[in-house]
Write a structure and sequence with these properties.
Shape: elongated
Strand order of the largest sheet: 1-2
Radius of gyration: 18 Å
């Protein structure tokens, strides 16, 4: 398997959830790459746990769309092909834009403070060329905007779509020009939210998602 980012687990509390969280992180960080087999015996060895919770965790990844079952190969990490990416984008662009609009209307002062904090963290990652940090702050910012929208169902749907997008986003996360562009777009969205300009927040988020997909296609 690529990378050695999967460290042995030491906690026995809710071990299935712990295993699944570790596998999700490995997928999002690229330690488990798209198309890579998820061998239960190998994963159990690397995580230092029994096979049973790993098997259940892998089934959970399939249910979340982060892994798929393939004939003669078993379960592998999901690959986001261009058609799938387009389909996700067509749904996500409306939901993300709507979330930004609602966030501009409903966000508390604390929510806006958190958005600005994440932006500062992201700016530091862009200046340092820290792809992993940018990747992390990108997800955090979108989650915070969805949270500020004050609609739990919307936030849950966006989280599921974001998981699939995050697999594809690895192709552009290490590109410094793309990181700078994404940060600039994020800053524009947050500025509109802080100004309570719902229409501008919606428009800027829509443009950001469209530009992100264009960058993925070009990568």
């Amino acid at each position: 398997m690529a990378g050695e980012a999967l460290a042995a687990l030491t906690s026995s509390t809710r071990i299935v959830d712990t295993v699944q969280a570790a596998l999700r992180t490995a997928i999002f960080e690229g330690a488990l790459r798209a198309g890579e087999p998820l061998s239960v015996p190998e994963l159990a060895r690397r995580l230092n746990v029994s096979r049973s919770p790993v098997r259940e965790a892998v089934r959970g990844l399939v249910a979340q769309g982060l892994a798929v079952e393939q004939p003669r190969r078993g379960v592998v990490v999901a690959t986001v092909d261009p058609a799938d990416l387009l389909a996700i984008h067509e749904v996500r662009v409306f939901l993300e834009a709507g979330a930004a609009s609602l966030c501009a209307q409903r966000a508390s002062g604390g929510d806006i403070k958190e958005l600005r904090k994440i932006l500062r963290e992201q700016e530091a990652t862009v200046k340092a060329g820290d792809a992993a940090g940018y990747f992390r702050t990108n997800a955090a910012l979108h989650r915070a905007i969805a949270g500020g929208a004050g609609n739990e169902r919307l936030a849950q749907i966006l989280e599921n779509l974001e998981d699939r997008m995050r697999i594809a986003l690895h192709r552009v996360a290490a590109n410094r020009a793309h990181m700078r562009a994404g940060f600039s777009e994020h800053r524009a969205v947050v500025a509109a939210i802080a100004a309570r300009d719902a229409a501008a927040a919606e428009q800027r988020m829509r443009r950001h998602i469209e530009n992100t997909v264009a960058r993925m296609r070009a990568a």
